[in-house]
Design brief:
The protein has about 475 residues and is α/β, with parallel strands linked by helices. Helix content is about 50%, strand content about 10%. α9 packs across α10, α16 runs antiparallel to α17 and α16 crosses α19. The protein is globular and about 100 Å long.
Length: about 475
């Protein structure tokens, strides 16, 4: 049986982007939301010197953690195991879902209630559980809304930022029995919470993400605002936490600076409502908490980034979303146009390691390289440098020293290669350059009207009627 042809990633991205740009209401909503989030962040960092010092400290902690990652992961596993938390390792999404499914089947789970976890989105957890006949329900309000709508998150911090209150109201009326239409935001929140409260009590397993994992104490740190994370990790009899291998830090004292940077950069809050520290399952004499706690540590391409000294800085990310909030491209096309779990600037540098450069290379070109993301990144990830590196990798000739990533050379075509080879030949020989420029200036009327992406929004490029060298000759005495 013949295989279906895979869609061209560049064409698919262009189509999604155009659809987003053509939606004027969505563009206005995103622009307003980004302006609001930028203003909130500014109010949280009124002292420029404090911000500089805190970013320096945050970057140093993340760089130190990554430099010692193998040792810290072993230490984390040892201390978690000593605390009674079972540690599992998954190389990819399939292995991670298989581990979670094995746990669910062993405890005969029928329902899983989830706290916010972008890693679970990354591995397609909900679909894997649904295929096995197990209900997986989102309890974060934004995630719950997009799950009801059959969509994916459009932002890593605010998943339903693309939804208006009118759209949410209509969605609740359609999907939740007995709900009357209301555009009152507080009423909509209460409707969602009433549904979710029952689910917490009915769930057999609670699933959460992990913001930071502390190696020396064997502690999982979970940041949240709604209390759903605390409910997921205490009410069901089994708690499964999923996270990438890069989230580990060495000491508990490393958490407060990162926590301060995360909350203020993400939502413009001094602190979040809840900071959960989980070190063990329910102990004798305790009245709540799960009987079992499991941690699934996921690679899923992170080792590829880790193996390269430059690309390793990608793993410094603490998932605050500030780069998205300040990105002019993201503000115009939104998160769904990227077609990946992680959108925006951070998605453009993370996704190639998870999905391969062949499927994601257009994202590296979806940037103005304006440096806004670098200026606000709390842990100083050199995002623009990484985007340029990925662009070069996408155009690299397979087998060369510059083609080190999975999918390198995916954007390279015979036509583009021929054009650049001809360009290099012309510019390396003075006589050939002079002859070519002479023919171009004299034959300017033959310049094509259609010049690809350039003429979609610009006038065609036409050579000058006279070369610079000719003009300079006329000026000589």
């Amino acid at each position: 049986m013949s295989q279906m042809a895979m869609p061209d990633p560049a064409s698919a991205f262009r189509q999604r982007s155009r659809s987003a740009v053509d939606d004027s209401a969505q563009r206005q909503n995103f622009r307003s939301a980004m302006d609001y989030l930028q203003a909130k962040r500014r109010t949280q960092f009124p002292d420029e010197q404090e911000l500089v010092g805190l970013r320096d400290l945050g970057e140093a902690i993340r760089r130190y953690s990554l430099a010692n990652l193998p040792r810290l992961l072993e230490q984390l596993e040892q201390n978690l195991t000593a605390n009674g938390i079972r540690v599992h390792w998954a190389e990819n999404a399939e292995e991670a879902n298989a581990i979670a499914l094995a746990i669910a089947r062993r405890v005969e789970a029928r329902r899983i209630v989830k706290g916010k976890s972008m890693v679970s989105e990354e591995i397609g957890f909900n679909h894997a559980m649904q295929a096995a006949g197990i209900e997986a329900l989102e309890s974060d309000m934004g995630e719950y809304i997009v799950q009801l709508a059959g969509e994916t998150p459009s932002h890593i911090i605010m998943p339903a930022i693309h939804k208006t209150k009118q759209a949410i109201a209509a969605l609740f009326v359609e999907k939740i029995p007995g709900v009357e239409y209301t555009e009152d935001v507080d009423a909509l929140i209460q409707i969602g919470r009433r549904v979710l409260r029952r689910k917490f009590a009915e769930a057999d397993i609670g699933l959460s993400g992990v913001n930071f994992a502390v190696a020396e104490t064997g502690t999982l740190c979970l940041v949240e605002n709604e209390g759903n994370g605390r409910m997921c990790t205490t009410v069901p009899r089994v708690h499964i936490a999923v996270t990438g291998i890069e989230k580990v830090v060495e000491k508990l004292e490393h958490v407060p600076p990162l926590f301060s940077l995360l909350t203020r950069s993400a939502t413009g809050q001094a602190v979040t409502t809840y900071l959960n520290l989980i070190s063990h399952p329910r102990q004798p004499g305790e009245k709540d908490g799960p009987e079992e706690v499991h941690l699934i540590l996921i690679d899923n391409g992170r080792s590829q980034a880790y193996a390269d000294a430059q690309l390793r800085t990608t793993l410094q990310c603490i998932r605050c979303g500030a780069c998205m909030n300040h990105c002019p491209v993201y503000a115009r096309i939104g998160g769904h146009a990227y077609g990946t779990t992680y959108p925006g600037p951070i998605g453009a540098i993370v996704s190639p390691h998870m999905l391969g450069l062949a499927a994601t290379y257009p994202l590296a070109f979806a940037s103005t390289l304006c440096h806004a993301c670098v200026e606000v990144c709390p842990v100083r990830i050199p995002i623009t440098d990484l985007l340029i590196r990925l662009r070069n990798e996408a155009q690299a000739q397979p087998g060369t020293v510059n083609a080190s990533l999975r999918g390198s050379g995916a954007a390279r075509t015979a036509l583009v290669s021929a054009i650049w080879n001809a360009w290099a030949l012309i510019y390396s020989r003075l006589g050939l350059y002079c002859l070519t420029s002479w023919f171009m200036s004299r034959g300017r009327a033959l310049s094509p009207i259609e010049q690809g992406a350039w003429t979609r929004s610009r006038t065609p490029l036409t050579p000058a009627p006279r070369r610079l060298r000719d003009l300079l000759k006329d000026r000589r005495p």
